[in-house]
Amino acid sequence: MQCATHPNVETNLACGRCGKAICPQCLVYAPVGVRCRECGKGVRLPTYRLDPQHLLMASAVGLGLGAGLGALWAVLLRGSFGLSFFSLLLAVGIGWGIAEAISRSVNKKRGPPLQVIAGASVVVSYVARSVMVAALYNYTFVDAFLSIAIAGAALALVIAVSMLK
């Protein structure tokens, strides 16, 4: 059998979809076997297909939850600037909670746009925490923002973004 694209190459491979003869240079690996270049053109998996409605819903959930959890973060830590174990644990929970809520709000979808939304939501959470600390505990916003808790926010950011890959 000769390759349909390269007639001088003999092959025993055939496209798993259309049956066209293909050589090793032409084949495309697909989740269900090898395909020719025409049949192997990637169709995005449903998990990664996002409509504008999905992005709007994820943004609303993520940003709203980020602001609320940021305020909760400030109240639970009572203005503490120390990098305590509880602070790190709370930051991990905030990152996980934001990512999980975003994922569930769009039917467990994933992808780079949702990673950006999750990252922005964690940043909103940290800014909300800093505003609340400054307002409730008589710190300047700069002192509250540049506290050591930024390490916890970075950890929350990594967790939220990595969960939506």
What is the topology, as strand order, of the major beta sheet?
1-2
Which regions have little confidence, pLDDT < 50, spanning 5+ residues?
Answer: none
Q: Helical stretch count? A: 5
Residue-averaged pLDDT: 88
Q: Major sheet, described briefly?
A: 2 strands, antiparallel
Shape: elongated
Helix fraction, binned, reads: 55-70%
Strand content: 5-15%
User: What oligomeric assembly is this protein in?
Assistant: single chain
Distance between the termini: 41 Å
- Whole-number tally of structural domains: 2
**Structure classification:** mainly alpha
The radius of gyration is 24 Å
Order of secondary-structure elements: EEEEHHHHH
Number of strands: 4
Overview of the molecule:
The protein has 165 residues and is mainly alpha-helical. Helices cover 56% and strands 6% of the residues. It has 5 helices and 4 strands, in the order E-E-E-E-H-H-H-H-H. The strands form 2 sheets. The chain has a two-stranded antiparallel ribbon. A hairpin with a 2-residue loop joins strand 3 (28-30) and strand 4. Helix 1 (52-77) runs antiparallel to helix 2, helix 1 (52-77) runs parallel beside helix 3 and helix 3 packs antiparallel against helix 5 (150-163).
Brief descriptors of the model:
165 residues; 2 domains; two-stranded antiparallel sheet
